[in-house]
Amino acid sequence: MTDTSVGALIKSAYPAQYYATKGENALSTLMDVWSGKTITGQAVDLLSIPAVSSLVALSAAQWALASVPSVTGQSNIFVTGSALTYPDRYYCDKNSPCAVYDMWGFSSAPTSPALADLYPITADAYADRQQNPRQQYYDTTTGKLADYVPPVVVVPLADRAAAEVSGWIQSQINYAAAMGETFSDKMKAYVKAVQAIASGADMTSTALPDRPTDIMG
User: Fold this and answer.
1) What is the pLDDT of residue 3?
2) Is the pTM of this model over 0.85?
3) Contacts with 188 (C-beta within 8 Å, 6 or more apart), sequence order
4) Closest CA to 29 of 45, 47, 15
């Protein structure tokens, strides 16, 4: 026997359960049509609900996302045509480290970042980032945010040697000249070794020699 109850008829006419009316560029009233309530808990007059063709259907996941309070105090679900501009609400960009966004938390329709430049993240991941600010990136293997560790920058040995010549060694030269001193044999050997690395004459060393303890002769 066909179920002709009011509930069955509503489900047949509005099969997605969750719908929203559409304003100029954003959703207006969000409704759980099957329960006859708006997302704020107000009763919906089922006889006055617009035809399903004029509504925007929402998934259960989007309905749940719409129930999460906005950190910014703004709450607008923007649409492009009849589709949600940012259907997953919470996103991060593709940079490392990345920024995170609540794309439903703007007062006016955002023009950037574009959806194609974002990865969707969970509401929990967004909330965790707000409560525990830190550098993260989107791990495409796991589909989750992960803590970002900056890569170690390796300064070439020749550059380090050049910096040693223009820095510490030059300061010792200036001191020796001011005090009428001369370098010790160990200091002279050190200067020659570092200069050879800096100039490229020494291509075999893998580290700078230790600074001598006896600098002046």
Assistant:
1) 54
2) no
3) none
4) 45
